[in-house]
Amino acid sequence: MPDISKGVHPSARAAVGKRCGNMAPTFIQTALSRRLLDRDESAIASAGIALAAILLAAMGAAAWWTGRTQRQAMQQHRVEQVQSIAGLLADSAEAMLGADDLSPLRRLVADAARAHQLNRCRIELPGGRVIADADPRGITLQKLPPQWGPPVSPAPASVKEATIRLQHPLLVPGRGQAILEIHAFVADSASYAWEAQAGIGAAGAMALAGVLLVYRRMRRRLATVGAIREALQAAARGDTTPAALALDPSLGEEARAWNALLAEQDRLRHQATADQARQALAGRRCGRGDLDVAFDAMAQGLVLVDDKLNIRYANGAAAAFLHTSRDQMPGAPVSRFIAQEEVLELVRNVASGAVRNRSSVEIECPAEAGGGVLRFTVRPVRRDDYAAGMILIEDITQQRVAEQSHRSFVAHATHELRTPLTNIRLYAETAMEDGDKNPQARHSALNVINQEARRLERIVGEMLSVSEIEAGSLTIRPDDVRLDALLEELKADYQAQSADRGLTMEFDLPPKLPVIRGDRDKIALALHNLLGNALKYTPRGGTVRVSVRADERQLAVTIADSGIGISEEDQEHIFEKFYRAKDARVSRITGSGLGLTLAREVVRLHGGDITVQSELNKGSRFTLTLPLTTEAA
Predict the structure, then answer these.
(1) CA 573 to chain centre
(2) CA–CA gap between residue 524 and residue 458 (Å, rounded)
(3) Please, which residues have CB within 8 angstroms of residue 129's CB and are 6 or more apart in sequence?
(4) At which of 138, 158, 187 does a domain end?
(5) Long-range contacts of range 486-495, CB-CB < 8 Å, 24 or more positions apart?
(6) Nearest alpha-carbon partner for 599 in 527, 548, 494
């Protein structure tokens, strides 16, 4: 391995030695650099070995697959060839058997066996009597009888021990059925696959050679990387002179580029006049003007600080986020307005030049400061400007709330999906185990499975509808909707559930219900969500009542319950996506916070609405209204 200490310019080593006063620290640093470089090269070598192993494994798998595919193809081809031969022989043999032409038949069998390399080809009558065989010694019957026994079912074609075995029926009208039996070897395909495997091997060898070349090139470049690391370590110790940091140009393009960078930095250091001119220009650019107006229009807060951590500029949003007046910020230390140590540490690192990339931190503001979550993003700016760092302040409170709501929805949805699936599995096992002995138990289990499947379908439908709402693609397909049939289905779906929970479910319907115009599935979804919530949040012994009223203008479906009720504060939010009431009793009941959102959304697409009247601990009353005189939207 190359010695990376040779990459540093001789004048650089002399400067370091003179500064340190002895060679011991330099020797220790060089040894550490060598050890680090060995570790880097070891990582590269490990990656190369892993890549080579993967490549060899892939080539071996490809060669194996090629041989296997070749063998299967040849075997299939041979089977098809034998079947074709059998079909041709059968046509001729049936005619010859019908005409008692045994001599031509036996010659035909013998010629076919020789021409197509068949190791067995013969014709048998029922009872195993051989009338024709490629080997004349195998013939056991010299003359055909007028008729022979009942037909024998031929065995299907098979391949065993590299031999194809095939039986083909021969039908002779008025006399009976014979069997044409053919055995044929499957040729060894190993000799046919060697060319493809040799090609794969050659490709693998070339790929390995390429990996080796890449590794050797990277190994040579590690010397340059090590030399640059040693120069950076010298700079970290405080020696920033070009003589101490310069590299030997013979190390390659990277070393020459590094030296050019050092030269450019030294040149800029001596251009004080040009720097002052650029600072003056930057000051005018950041003065009160068009840019100032544009920055004030930003929703994000923007603060510029210098290398002394004093504020040079702040827009209006920054002053609002930091709860101060904008006029008090320029010239003041940033720590006066930002108390969080995490943010101040990022600003110090950027202003001092220790950090050259962007860093972010999220801060939860206390309630007395307005609450919420602010994200502070700190990044350096150009050194030829008057500012050293920029702070961008964003309010991500709503994003955090949305993320928390989404996580809660995923957890609830997972539970909602697991419950019907578990019930379906348990009742399916009951039906299978006890169904034959107890038809009543089987019927009950199938009813539960049907109900849980419908419930599962509704849950999945809600999830899909949420996606459509978020994408703005939720639409309806208007058609005639028979309310009497829809409400009967609703009653049947929840009759068993209300009975199991000890609830009284009543339906107050007029003698005749109108046929409305709308999307039947989505109206059913809204009604299911309203009635399902009423049953879910009503304690045992309570009552749920569904009443329908209609006039010339609109239809009103009211679902009232004697359940736990909803507070006035929660009534303002229950139709928001993922929102669930803050009542502790609600948190103990599984729910996704989507049912009312979807119900109101689909009803409003029909030109209607859903309203709520509720009192805590006294029940709730939801009213769904749909227009009758206008077409659904």
Answers:
(1) 32
(2) 10
(3) 140, 141, 148
(4) 187
(5) 486/520, 486/523, 486/524, 486/527, 487/513, 487/527, 487/546, 487/548, 489/524, 490/524, 490/527, 490/528, 490/531, 490/546, 491/546, 493/451, 493/454, 493/528, 494/531, 494/532, 494/535
(6) 527
Tokens 């999906």 — which residue?
417
The enclosing H or E element of 626 equals strand 619-627
Q: For residues 565 and 612, what is the distance between their CA atoms, to the nearest angstrom?
A: 11
* Virtual torsion, Cα 260, 262, 266, 271, nearest 10 deg: 60
Of the three residues 416, 433, 467, the one that is the final residue of a domain is 467
Read off the amino acid at residue 611: T
Three-state DSSP at 303 gives strand
Give dist(CA 420, CA 449) in Å, integer: 8
- How many CA atoms, within 13 angstroms, populate the side-chain half-sphere of residue 50? 6
Residue 14 predicted with pLDDT over 90? no
- Token code pair at residue 133: 């065989």
List the structure tokens of 285. Answer: 């650019």
Instruction: Find all residues with CB under 8 Å of 340, minimum gap 6, and list them.
Output: 361, 363, 376
Half-sphere exposure of 115 (CA within 13 A, CB side): 10
**How many Cβ atoms sit within 10 Å of the Cβ of residue 277?**
12
Rg, C-alpha atoms of the chain: 44
Helical spans, DSSP H, in 237-271:
242-245, 253-269
pLDDT category at 611 given cuts 50, 70, 90 is very high
For residue 614, the surrounding DSSP H or E stretch is strand 609-615
Query: Residue ranges of the alpha helices (H) in 289-357?
Result: 290-296, 316-321, 341-352
Strand positions, DSSP E, 203-339: 301-305, 311-314
* Domain range for 143: 68-187
* pLDDT, tens only, 443-489: 888 888 888 888 788 778 777 777 777 677 778 888 999 999 999 99
| 568 and 550 in a common domain | yes
414 and 536 co-located in one domain: no
pLDDT in tens, 276-329: 656 665 555 555 567 778 888 888 999 999 888 899 999 999 998 888 988 889
Using CA atoms of 53, 54, 57, 61 in order, give the dihedral in degrees to the nearest 10.
-170
pLDDT in tens, 99-145: 888 888 888 888 888 888 888 898 888 888 888 888 888 888 888 88
What order do you get walking across the sheet with 311-314 strand by strand?
Answer: 311-314, 301-305, 389-395, 373-380, 359-364
- Tell me whether residue 19 is in a domain: no
- In the chain, the largest separation of any two C-alpha atoms, in whole Å, equals 125
Instruction: Please identify which residue in the block is written with the tokens 């919530």.
Output: 533
Q: Where in 443-553 does DSSP place strands (E)?
A: 479-482, 504-508, 515-518, 543-550
Within a domain: 623: yes
| Residue 549 belongs to domain with CATH number | 3.30.565.10
Question: Within 99-160, where are the H helices?
Answer: 102-115
Q: Where are the alpha helices (DSSP H) in 481-519?
A: 483-500
Q: How far is CA 593 from the centre of its chain?
A: 25
State if pTM tops 0.85: no
